[in-house]
């Protein structure tokens, strides 16, 4: 997200901070949490106008990201359980030996989380014939209109088009009563619309079957990305540019012939960069980041540990002081301290998730997304 100008609050006749410069009022309010700001909209009309403005929402989001006010949002694995959980990341990173508490929000239906962008969660509902999608801001309560896909989603992704400043949802949809798979992009907003685009040959084989490893694409800087393993060839990343609505390909870092090539690479997003991790010489795990120049740079070499051996490690988050949160063997969450090599299994109190396996024992089939609370609406 580009840097936005600091919003100027409207002039009010009776200010809660009489004599305080307007710019200082903005700086005070923007440092508060999005949840707190929702309540402060009731203080006076001028604050409601200020806090409800898109400029203030963008400024608050930038601070939230800069100061790592991140959470893990997840949906449970049982479709009869209609709730979404939120786990503050700072509680995991600051004191992993103390139980970080999960907060659950009851929902009307069971949702899968496709992804999160600027404080919006993209939620997916599946049934036997079709799938539906909507956007939800947990802080403000904003929800978009339901999006009907017209078929069963084979793969999908959600992200922000920085060129046109629009939120978009990509889906490869199997049409009812046929074997046809159609690729579509939906643009959210007042004038929302579907657009059909050409299917990329690498995402579908001749039998119209998806051959990706990860069925939900990774969103990063206006693109949605998938790892595509190719028989007898180097694996590639196929992406769709949400602004241009075109496809492209990226090569992965060169792998050593001594690597365990039977363990597929895993792509993710760390520090707003595309990441990839894979087995390295059957003794280590290599983690790479794609920099601004579209070159892969090595972030870390992680020695094998019994809890990681022969596992596909899925990265979720990395802190400014190089603490890596990932999903390892048996679907458990781990913290790796890259500076000294420590590996910690954080304690998580998920007792609010009744009838579900505790998260400390594994995330199971939960769908996860890194989420920054915000005031953003479409």
TrEMBL record:
<feature type="domain" description="F-box">
    <location>
        <begin position="14"/>
        <end position="60"/>
    </location>
</feature>
<dbReference type="Pfam" id="PF00646">
    <property type="entry name" value="F-box"/>
</dbReference>
<protein>
    <recommendedName>
        <fullName>F-box domain-containing protein</fullName>
    </recommendedName>
</protein>
<dbReference type="InterPro" id="IPR001810">
    <property type="entry name" value="F-box_dom"/>
</dbReference>
<dbReference type="InterPro" id="IPR036047">
    <property type="entry name" value="F-box-like_dom_sf"/>
</dbReference>
<dbReference type="InterPro" id="IPR006527">
    <property type="entry name" value="F-box-assoc_dom_typ1"/>
</dbReference>
<dbReference type="InterPro" id="IPR017451">
    <property type="entry name" value="F-box-assoc_interact_dom"/>
</dbReference>
<dbReference type="Pfam" id="PF07734">
    <property type="entry name" value="FBA_1"/>
</dbReference>
<dbReference type="InterPro" id="IPR050796">
    <property type="entry name" value="SCF_F-box_component"/>
</dbReference>
